[in-house]
Amino acid sequence: MTPSKRSIIGGVDTHTATHHAAVIDLNGRLIADANSPATPAGYAAMLTWMRNQGKLSRVGVEGTGAYGAGVARHMHEQGVEVLEVPRPDRRIRRQRGKSDPIDAEAAARTVLAGTASSAPKLADGPIEAIRMLRVARNGAVKARTAALNTLRSMVITAPEPLRTQLRPLSSAQLVAACARLRPDLANLAEPVHAAKLALRSIALRVQHFDIETRSLRKQLDELTQAAAPTTSAVFGLGPDTVSALLITIGDNPDRLRSEAAFAHLCGVAPIPASSGKTNRHRLHRGGDRAGNSALHIAAVVRLRYDPRSRAYANRRTTEGLSMPEIIRCQKRYLAREIFHALRADYAKLST
User: Fold this and answer.
1) DSSP 212
2) pLDDT single digits (tens) 245-280
3) Are both 182 and 263 inside the same structural domain?
4) Do 255 and 222 belong together in one domain?
């Protein structure tokens, strides 16, 4: 069969500087493989090379959320169906070894076998903007916490006059007091003045992260409300949890195939764990943990403030369920409600 008539499937093994591609036919025979730089010109050259081998139907790409984001986005823009390929099975890797050509071929075979069925996050819309701001905000929060912990530990080991003065203060009072310290820069060899300078430096760092966190939080809340007004109106959800759920799905609504798929994506789909006369389900420990955490927070808020949820919890408690099991059920019900809200918001984004 001539290259122009045969149908082929592509696979891409991605790295920082280069990507390795392989193409196979529908019978699983390897046709060719090639290496390309991880640049826009390299993506275009790789796609042209693949199409020269035959009729390209699908391409499996490793690491679409990292090194493979650029090539996956380029191929999608060129009308190619791109599928996210999971990490290769370790048992198979031990048998066949590892190299870039082997991994690229394995990615193509994963698509052919139907194992790779997830659409990658395209990261080309407002949800990607929300993700970037959330990463920056979370980084600022972690840095502030680390700086505040350092400040408190330094107070414990500070010279006694400073320690006596600062130890009883709350976190906010401690930061404000340390920011007002005036060390004698000419006598930094003395521990008291060196401690004042160090404490003031760390306190000013905490204040800087406070300002940065508030600014990023404001921008993040505005973007989230604009992107998902229907989801933001769901009882128990706030801007932080809504943004986490949006990031779990990504910019392409085709990842929301069904309500059950969304529940599985967030790790709240019940897994059968029955045996003999025992009929039960166990916790699903897979899925996106940030999305699972968002649903957990919303479920806890509802159990505390929503009369319907509290009545449900009381009824299930009398039936013998523990509180973790009740929360698990609430998260599954909540996923169903949020799914329809997200569908409505994504429909507006795509218009």
Assistant:
1) H
2) 999 988 877 777 889 889 988 999 887 877 777 777
3) no
4) no
Q: What are 267-274's contacts with CB under 8 Å, separation 24+?
A: 267/291, 267/292, 268/292, 268/295, 268/328, 268/331, 268/332, 268/335, 269/332, 270/328, 270/332
Q: What are residue 272's phi and psi, to 5 degrees?
A: -60, 135
Task: Give pLDDT, residue 344.
Answer: 92
The reply to whether 180 and 258 lie within a common domain is: no
Contact indicator for 313, 326 with CB cutoff of 8 Å: yes
- How far is residue 68's CA from residue 159's CA, in Å, rounded to a whole number? 53
CA dist 47 and 55 (Å) reads: 11
- Please report the DSSP string for 40-75 in residue order: HHHHHHHHHHHHHHSEEEEEEEE-TTTTTHHHHHHH
Q: What is the mean pLDDT of residues 60-68?
A: 90
Same domain, 234 and 345: yes
**329 and 252 in a common domain:** yes
| Boundary of a domain, candidates 211, 227, 243 | 227
Sign of the torsion angle spanned by Cα atoms 261, 263, 14, 80: positive
Count Cβ atoms below 10 Å from residue 137 Cβ, excluding itself: 20
Which of the two residues, 293 and 276, has the higher pLDDT score? 293
Asked if 241 and 195 sit in the same domain, the reply is: no
Q: Whole domain around residue 26: which residue ranges?
A: 7-113
Q: Which of 13, 91, 90 is nearest to 59 (CA)?
A: 13
Given a cut of 60, whether residue 1 has pLDDT beyond it is no
Look at residue 118 and tell me if it is in a domain. Answer: no
Q: In total, how many domains does the chain have?
A: 3
What is the share, in percent, of the chain residues with pLDDT greater than 90?
A: 69
pLDDT in the model for residue 93: 64
